[in-house]
# Entry
Amino acid sequence: MNSAPLGLSAANLPPRVQRTLERALILVSEELDHGMQRLVEEFERELFRLADMSRNPGAETGYMRALRSFRLNRADLLPSFMVQVESGLAGLRSPATAPPPVPVEPEAPSFRNLSLLETSVMDEDTVLGEIASRHEGRATLALHLLGQRFGVLAGSPAFDAARLPLGPYALCRALRTAAVGMELDHDARLLLYRMFDRQVMPGYERVLDRLNELLADQGILPALVFVPVRARPAPVEARKDADEPPPAADRNPGEPAPGPGGRKPEQRLYTGWPGQAANADGAEDDDAAFAMLQQLLSGRRELIDKLRAERGAGGRRQMDTPDLMKALRGLQHGTAARRGDLPEIKRTILAQARQQYGEASALSPQDSDTFELVGLLYEQIENEIRADAPTSSLVRELQLPLLRLALLDRAFFLHNNHPARQLLNTIAESAARGTDQGDLDRAMVGPLQQAVKDVVERFDDDPAVFTRANAGLQQHMQVQARKAETLEKRHIEAARGKEKLEMARRRAAEVLDKAVGDRRLPHFARALLNQAWADVLTLTLLRQGEESEDWRQQVAATVDVISACLGEEGAGGPELAGHVQTSLSQVGYHEDEAAVIAQRLTATADDGDDPASRTELAMKLKARVRLGEDKVNAEKPQLPPRTAAEQARYEQLRVLPFGCWMEFSTNQQGDVVRRRLSWYSRITDNALFVNQRGQRVAEFSLDQLARMMARGQARLVTAERGRLVDRAWQATINALRSFAGRGDEVGTMRAGT
# Structure
């Protein structure tokens, strides 16, 4: 019997700690109250809507039953939720074990209670875990600071997000307890969790900020701040030496797996869906990027000046930025603009200025740099997209509006979450080389075209045009991402079902081997046991679980069948034969086949008895597809042992997070296709891959993947390489570094001539 949740008043905490926690509880209650009330109203409305729209009488009845139950208990949701939250705070100093880390090696699988009913529990854990993990990622800094402060209150080391009493995982656990207490069924609880994510959790970051402010005001680490440590870029030689990732055994359990080349956790893997908005950059990163960009452009200008020193480029009239913007506006709908031909646009602008003012003109250094930066960026983007893609022309149409925007707002180059940069990335990724023809949903072509059309026609030096176009397109992308996630989830559930089936097959084989022991069965009888009767054990285990009476009966029947096959006195008989025949019929054997097999398994077997009949039965069994059998994997060739490099990759793969992306080489020219590692099993070693639309496109074993990675045929995609425009911009910066770095060399060459 569970004890009642402990309240703060009965927690026996130091007075100051108790007062602080009471204030924190009041703050959380006030902050979440409005969202929880909205959740109650929206959840009730959604249940009614689903019942009204349902065409299935059974589903309609289920929704109405959930609605009635919820209406009876709706007033208890918030109090019950807050009681659980308070209980977590009250147990701050109670001995508690941390949530177990994800093991590097899988634990031995337990077959107790193995049944299809486990899926519902797994679904709840999965949904709540995803909600908590998502909000942990959005509020990492605030949770880190709050964990430090709660460590002070608890007189213990800092709390991580999973153990923090007011962390996202604690709130999700509190919600689950409250939902179970309201007697909602499984599907209704899942709906409640998702609506909690939409109605309550969007304000969670603000709650954390206010909690940190409250604790600081109460004197709990008032001077605590977070100062990120910027890592210096490693030299090229060091990067080459770091090609191999450290073995999994050398990392702490739960530590993020390194990417290719031994990447550190801060170089995290890319897990987003294509076209989704980037996370905001920090101010420190912006300042550093701006300073670096100025330095690179300065070095580039010095080199150009040295190369053009003998050309006498001085004496030209400098064109003002407003005049340049006016001239570009007039070219917006010209042929050069549609082709994205910046050099031709620049020549046209300068020719018009010469004609207007009667003298040669030049752009200002800053405007000229912007022209060059946009041009260089687009060169890199062109290398990343397919010319035959239906949306490749949209990328070029967007170039002139982007140039005009960059002349007004150079933050376009510095902020990877800039609306214009996000819009460009979404358009470019729809035509990326790493996608197949079927990866782009044709329904998205229209919204992509409309977004570009809106910018081209409406941009009149107002950055808000890009913001609106990007916001509208992002809504479509979010719908696509949800569709992909839904489809992906179905494939994952199917893969997990196959894993569960494989576990049941292994357990059935163990039971058979144990029952037979070291006794020698007739060859044909053993073949029937290993194939036909093993399917019966497997299906019983899947449907009923290992603790069920049905499973115990089948294990007992297995012992009786083996005794009958050995011809032991008193074994077999019509009753056992009938049981075996019925069991075989339940796994898909025809009545005649089931009867013949039952007779063979429950009577004294003689390999010399009726060889023609036995041969006919053996041929039928050989042609029959067994329960869960995968002939492709069963017939795969035996491979040599993994090399050290392959083993390191194999250990790395076994601790990867689900949802990361990999690139696979498709030909000798270096073309790649990008696929999402949706799920893998440490038990069966199978890995499931989907494309950008969530469609299943491949299954590999982890062993195959490790060998491919070691040969350079597959690689993990890190966050810094996740988005196309970010990759193109990084390539542009690298080109500028290389270009500017030759300035001194050119100067030396000129001085020596």
